[in-house]
Design goal:
- The chain is an alpha/beta fold.
- It contains 17 helices and 13 strands.
- It has a 6-stranded mixed sheet, sandwiched between helices. A 4-stranded parallel sheet has the order 8-7-6-9, sandwiched between helices.
- α14 (347-358) crosses α15 (366-380).
- It is 38% helix and 13% strand.
- β10, α11 and β11 form a beta-alpha-beta unit.
- Among the domains are: 97-122 and 231-409, 3-Layer(aba) Sandwich (Rossmann fold); 426-452.
Length: 452
């Protein structure tokens, strides 16, 4: 008979408070700190590391419900006590670990990889957490909880994931978006999935305040990353990366951060791998922020002795345009444990970094550009080594940001000169003229001349 596994919400401040996962609670009722999902590791350790590796490897990519999902293939380590019938999954996860060989060669790096989380169902890594949260809401409804909707504040990707998974489950969703601050592709996703979309004349932090107020009504369930159910899904990125390398951890993992739940999720996954004996060391974690929304970077410069929210300025990396992140406590704790680093990128740096990566075959979102730009700066500062096995987490698909791509290559982004602009050449349909242009282009790119 299989061992019985369990998990609970636990206060991260160490006050000892615990809550059941079907309780509607987002912060510790005793001290106000954030919560995390704590597993009964003693029960899990009844099986050794070899057992877990074999189990997870055997499920990968299968069609047996729900284990073909990259998240639910690790069900025992995520939410063990949930009915398979109530799981809401689109077989998310199992995303490509892209060997960025040409980009690595350009930077003198021998072992550079990009985890393409944007190839998930709604085009971002937010799917990984939302499958867990919406599944648990579905479970709670079936257990008799009076939940009539799920709600989130978003800069785009969270709203897309929530609306899609809620639609799949038949649960109403509400999203609060900052007016005129997200791409059209991101705006249309929740609209298409039938969410109640409220476009507020404020920034993300203002939307976050509104969703906190609305979810005081316990019939509306909070779906932002301060809800640690989201973190449980997102932590599988760490498990999946290690699995893709034959259960070996990388040396460095770089991720862009706004509300900062993603960083603590990475830490949670690697920590669990170590505690279960699957890996014997932890990677170094790097958090990359846009210079225009950089409160954690400013705190890092002061060794995290204090943290002050900032008024986030407009940034092309709109999903991380957040000045008062709700998961800052978890992020700081994670960075301290993982020998972490925080770096920032200017608008020009993130734009050029995304464009440079695209010239080697990727199609980077601006947030991935932030991560790559931060990596380049840390290489130059010798904070990370070019010999390190380095993973950049690409958080969303570039197709969600075509305005950014078009603006860059048309030299139309305000304040951005652009080192890698590649505009179309408009010309008459004349074979001779075409040959001349191609020869000139080939010469510029060191390609042999077009044959006559």
């Amino acid at each position: 008979m299989a061992a019985k596994y369990s998990a609970v919400f636990k206060c991260i401040a160490g006050c000892g408070e615990e809550y059941q996962l079907d309780e509607i609670v987002y912060r510790c009722k005793k001290c106000g700190a954030l919560l995390e999902v704590a597993h009964d590791t003693e029960a899990l350790k009844r099986h050794d590391a070899a057992y877990w590796k074999s189990l997870f490897d055997g499920r990968a990519g299968t069609t047996k419900w729900p284990y073909g999902s990259g998240i639910w293939s690790k069900k025992e380590w995520v939410i063990p006590d949930i009915s398979d019938d109530n799981i809401v999954s689109m077989y998310e996860g199992n995303t490509n670990l892209f060997w960025a060989k040409r980009l690595g060669d350009m930077l003198g790096m021998s072992d550079l990889w990009i985890k393409m989380c944007g190839t998930s169902h709604t085009g971002s890594f937010k799917d990984l957490g939302m499958t867990v949260l919406v599944s648990m809401v579905n479970e709670m409804i079936h257990r008799g909880k009076k939940i009539k909707a799920v709600a989130c504040a978003s800069t785009g990707d969270t709203s897309a994931a929530l609306s899609a998974y809620a639609a799949y489950a038949g649960i109403p969703s509400i999203v609060f978006l900052p007016k005129n601050k997200i791409s059209m592709a991101q705006l249309v996703q929740p609209i298409a999935n039938g969410a109640i979309v409220l476009s507020l004349d404020t920034d993300f932090d203002g939307c976050m305040e509104m969703v906190r107020e609305v979810t005081k009504d316990e019939t509306i369930y909070l779906a932002n990353s301060m809800n640690s159910l989201r973190i449980e899904g997102q932590k599988t990125i760490s498990i999946e990366i290690s699995q893709q390398f034959g259960w070996e951890p990388p040396d460095v993992v770089i991720i862009p951060g706004g509300n900062l739940g993603n960083l603590s999720a990475l830490g949670s996954g690697f920590r669990m791998l170590r505690d279960m004996g699957v890996i014997d060391r932890l990677p170094r974690l790097v958090l990359a922020q846009a210079q225009n929304a950089n409160p954690l970077y400013l705190s890092y410069l002061k060794n995290f002795e204090s943290f002050e929210p900032v008024a986030a300025k407009k940034t092309l990396a709109s999903a991380i345009q957040i000045g008062n992140p709700v998961s800052v406590q978890k992020a700081v704790k994670t960075l301290k444990e993982f020998n972490g680093v925080v770096e920032q990128a200017s608008e020009e740096e993130l734009s050029d970094a995304a464009a440079a990566a695209d010239r080697t075959g990727t199609f980077c979102c601006p947030h991935t550009g932030v991560a790559i730009a931060a990596m380049i700066k840390l290489l130059e500062k010798k904070v990370i080594s070019p010999k390190d096995r380095t993973i950049v987490i690409s958080t969303a698909h570039g197709l969600k940001f075509t305005e950014f791509k078009t603006g860059y290559n048309e030299n139309a982004l305000e304040g951005i000169k652009g080192k890698y602009i590649n505009s179309p050449v408009e010309m008459p349909a004349d074979a001779g003229r075409v040959r001349e242009v191609l020869e000139r282009k080939f010469a510029q790119n060191n390609i042999r001349a077009f044959p006559r």
